[in-house]
């Protein structure tokens, strides 16, 4: 097995390309977008994923591009600050954990691979035969020893090889939307948010960012919509946030002009197997933990490292499943618990959360309270002992 195709050039795809190439495989990456995707939202790298980044020689570069977020502030409906606390605590970060913009991380990974890996942009796979022949929308059919699906939670590769997404998706009962908006709040490495029962709005601006990102989350029954109809998705968001105070009406007006609008359910992907024949899945395509877990990027980085390492070591796809599954299960377990703290289900729970945030710096048991927030994330982020596949 020497010639490998990767479908998708986001974090999971570019990281897998790096490790496969480092182990001596010939690698081709096909990506639907015309170039590596820029921008995106901020992501965390923790625990075992930090070790992967270090083994790639990227740790200093990643830290140099840290978001440098300082504080997070809750506001009431009239715009009055209710509680302010440390941004790392808000993000569940401890120790050496680092936060970086998704586009910055992917650019670093792409730069590591662009000279040694073949990239086919503005193309996508349409079929994978049992003999490894892959057909594309634009390129001529080609044969590969293995096809790696690294094309996200709505993976085309998974649908082709394993079946429809509905078999594997678990809807957690929430929706999320993110886009770029003007920084009218004049935020400087800050997060500003407002929460009501069942709905949360968050705006943040990171280091050297002249704009801001608006993030909305809300609880909802499953919504029927066209994934290609952005205008329709923006209308669904507007309806969901109707009547919410603070700066939300202003933010929704800005959303109408956003060019990078993202909208999706907060869902996970659960599969009994991540490989079938000549196809294997990595990252969100195989084991999406949902944005609520805060561990999607770390799962992609660790998954890429383990997949390439096990293929090179000779244990192959069986070794990949064996080594990675406990880590995936530990991190997927974070999603359902975390999302309930991000979108509050009752007035009493919302009052209590804001009161605790306000009092936390003065509480005698502060360290224990902080550990209740950060401890489960830290334990899941370190729930794997990484093998040394390369010297």
In short:
37% of the residues lie in helices and 25% in strands. It has 391 residues and is of the alpha/beta class. A hairpin with a 5-residue loop joins strand 4 and strand 5 (81-86).
Structure description:
It holds the Pfam family FAD_binding_3. Helix content is 37%, strand content 25%. The protein has helices spanning 11-22, 47-55, 59-64, 87-90, 102-113, 156-162, 230-240, 248-255, 284-287, 296-313, 316-332, 334-342, 347-359, 366-381; strands spanning 3-7, 26-31, 42-45, 71-75, 81-86, 98-101, 118-121, 125-128, 133-136, 142-143, 146-149, 169-181, 190-196, 199-205, 212-219, 262-269, 275-276, 279-281. Strand 13 (190-196) and strand 14 (199-205) form a beta hairpin. The protein has a domain at 3-67 and 102-169 and 268-337: FAD/NAD(P)-binding domain (3-Layer(bba) Sandwich). The mean pLDDT is 92. Helix 1 (11-22) packs parallel to helix 5. It is globular. The longest helix is centred in the last third of the chain and has 18 residues, at 296-313. The chain has 391 residues and is an alpha/beta fold. A 7-stranded mixed sheet has the order 5-4-13-14-15-12-16, sandwiched between helices. A 6-stranded mixed sheet has the order 7-2-1-11-18-17, with helices on both faces.
Q: Specify the CATH homologous superfamily of the domain at 3-67 and 102-169 and 268-337.
A: FAD/NAD(P)-binding domain
Structure annotation, total helices: 14
Which structural class do you get from the secondary structure elements? alpha/beta
Radius of gyration: 21 Å
Separation of the first and last Cα atoms: 21 Å
| Main sheet strand line-up | 5-4-13-14-15-12-16
In CATH terms, what is the architecture of the domain at 3-67 and 102-169 and 268-337?
A: 3-Layer(bba) Sandwich
Task: Tell the overall outline.
Answer: globular
Mean pLDDT: 92
């Amino acid at each position: 097995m020497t010639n490998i195709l990767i479908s998708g050039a986001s974090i999971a795809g570019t990281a897998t390309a790096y490790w496969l190439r480092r182990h001596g495989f010939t690698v081709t990456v096909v990506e639907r977008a015309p170039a590596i995707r820029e921008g995106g939202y901020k992501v965390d790298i923790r625990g075992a994923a930090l070790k992967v980044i270090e083994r790639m020689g990227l740790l200093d570069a990643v830290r140099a591009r840290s978001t440098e977020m300082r504080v997070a502030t809750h506001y009431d409906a009239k715009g009055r600050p209710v509680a302010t606390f440390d941004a790392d605590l808000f993000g569940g970060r401890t120790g050496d954990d680092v936060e970086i913009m998704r586009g910055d991380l992917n650019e670093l990974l792409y730069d590591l691979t662009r000279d040694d890996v073949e990239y086919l942009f503005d193309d996508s796979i349409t079929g994978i035969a049992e003999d490894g022949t892959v057909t594309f929308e634009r390129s001529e059919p080609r044969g590969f020893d293995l096809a790696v699906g690294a094309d996200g939670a709505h993976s085309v590769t998974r649908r082709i090889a394993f079946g429809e997404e509905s078999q594997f998706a678990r809807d957690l009962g929430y929706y999320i939307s993110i886009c770029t908006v003007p920084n009218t709040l004049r935020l400087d490495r800050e997060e500003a948010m407002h929460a009501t029962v069942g709905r949360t709005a968050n705006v943040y601006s990171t280091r050297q960012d002249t704009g801001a990102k608006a993030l909305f989350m809300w609880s909802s029954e499953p919504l029927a919509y066209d994934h290609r109809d952005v205008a329709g998705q923006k209308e669904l968001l507007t309806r969901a946030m109707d009547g919410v105070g603070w700066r939300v009406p202003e933010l929704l007006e800005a959303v109408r002009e956003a060019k990078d609008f993202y909208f999706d359910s907060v869902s996970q992907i659960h599969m009994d197997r991540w490989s079938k024949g000549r196809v294997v899945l990595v990252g969100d395509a195989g084991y999406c933990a949902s944005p609520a877990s805060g561990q999607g990027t770390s799962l992609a980085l660790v998954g890429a490292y383990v997949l390439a390492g096990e293929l090179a070591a000779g244990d192959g796809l069986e070794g990949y499943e064996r080594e990675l599954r406990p880590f995936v299960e530990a991190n997927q377990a974070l999603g359902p618990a975390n999302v309930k703290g991000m979108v509050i289900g009752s007035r009493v729970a919302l009052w209590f959360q804001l009161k605790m945030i306000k009092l936390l710096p003065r509480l005698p048991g502060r360290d224990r309270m902080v550990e209740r927030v950060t401890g489960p994330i830290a334990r899941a982020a370190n729930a794997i002992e990484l093998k040394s596949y390369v010297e």
